[in-house]
Design brief:
Blueprint: E1 3-9, H1 13-26, E2 31-37, E3 51-53, E4 59-60, E5 66-67, H2 68-74, H3 77-86, E6 94-98, H4 101-110, E7 114-118, H5 136-145, E8 150-154, E9 163-164, H6 170-173, E10 183-186, H7 192-199, E11 207-210, E12 218-220, E13 223-226, H8 230-239, E14 242-245, H9 250-257, E15 261-264, H10 271-282, E16 286-287, H11 293-302, H12 315-327
Parallel strand pairs: 1-2, 1-6, 2-3, 6-7, 7-8, 8-9, 10-11, 10-14, 11-13, 14-15, 15-16
Antiparallel strand pairs: 4-5, 12-13
């Protein structure tokens, strides 16, 4: 039986939920070890992790924007290089990297076959929506952060031959959503006090704010502050009226699939999220560059909903693509 290393970036919830869906299928055909770098504050991996690394983490400044300078000094580049060369990648027949740099670079330097399986991989195609001004530095970074010889990208639409629709959690696909009179707010890059300052002015609406720094539930005016947790967050999304969140990929895709209202605020200086926001705008989703009272109030008053139908991926189709690559 061929041996596969499945390596994922642990900083994003979407990388984890995708691994949860795919790995049981992979284990039916291959011997699979799991590597993770970085940590997540909202969900438990629920995976049998064999290798853990610190990875590379972006640092957010007080304005809710990515600070490249702080990120450079926060991350131990020397430790990253040592981990890269010490890791025994040669014992694997194939490496699957979900935007995980140690496995990708180790594969590239040691001549091990590697396939990129991520939303970020879709940026290798020129056909996906982008901002009006292409950020060449950010494009270069995404291309070389986790380089692989082949790729399968995920996006809101199948923009190119190597790009599939979102691979959603089975619990989302099988869910029976309801509409209760509250909005979920998940803006982890913003200070909760600032979020409260803005949302408290919108006192005719009720908000559930998720904050990974909060240990127990708090009620302040029209806002409920909740600690992050997989089941708590899932149930809140399932029964809400709408979601205000960053312009990532997996969470907006789940919200769209559940037919909830969606309002996205891309993280500042984060090119990938700016491009995701552009893609969502093109299919009728509202977005703004920052958390702004007037703009958010306008969206809430509009009370319209997107009826977008997503072309979601099936895990079996993804496994078939991996098998085809193995047979090359």
């Amino acid at each position: 039986m061929n041996k596969i290393l499945y390596a994922l970036n642990g900083t994003g919830s979407g990388h984890i939920t995708r691994a949860r869906e795919l790995i049981p299928y992979l284990k039916k055909e291959y011997e699979v070890d799991i590597l993770i770098s970085g940590c997540n504050y909202i969900i438990n991996t629920k995976l049998d992790i064999k290798y853990r690394f610190k990875g590379f983490t972006f640092v957010i400044n007080d304005n809710g924007k990515v600070s490249y300078l702080k990120s450079f000094f926060y991350n131990n580049i020397i430790r990253f290089v040592i981990d890269l060369f010490r890791f025994n990648i040669k014992k694997y027949d194939l490496v699957i990297s979900d935007f995980e740099p140690i496995s990708s670079w180790s594969s590239k330097l040691r001549g091990v076959r590697c396939i990129q399986l991520s939303h970020q991989a879709s940026f290798l195609s020129n056909k996906i929506p982008r901002t009006e001004k292409k950020d060449k530095l950010a494009e270069f970074f995404m291309n070389w952060y986790s380089p692989c010889e082949e790729y399968i990208g995920f996006h809101f639409k199948e923009y190119d031959k190597n790009i599939l629709g979102p691979l959603l959690r089975s619990k989302i696909i099988n869910a029976e959503p309801k509409i209760e009179n509250y909005y979920v707010v998940y803006l982890w890059n913003y200070n909760t006090n600032y979020i409260l300052e803005v949302l408290s002015k919108l006192d005719q609406y009720h908000f559930k704010i998720f904050d990974f720094n909060t240990k127990e539930k708090q009620n302040i005016n029209n806002c409920e502050i909740l600690p992050t947790g997989d089941d708590t967050f899932f149930n809140a999304i399932l029964n809400c009226k709408g979601v205000v969140c960053g312009a990532g990929f997996e969470l907006p895709a789940e919200v769209l699939y559940l037919k909830k209202r969606l309002y996205v605020i891309p993280i500042g200086n984060q090119y990938e999220q700016a491009c995701n926001a552009e893609a969502l705008i093109r299919i009728g989703i509202d977005s703004y560059e920052k958390l702004d009272y007037n703009h958010l109030k306008s969206w809430l008053k509009n009370d319209s909903n997107s009826t977008q139908d997503l072309d979601i991926s099936n895990p079996k189709h993804v496994i078939k693509s991996i098998n085809d690559f193995m047979r090359k």
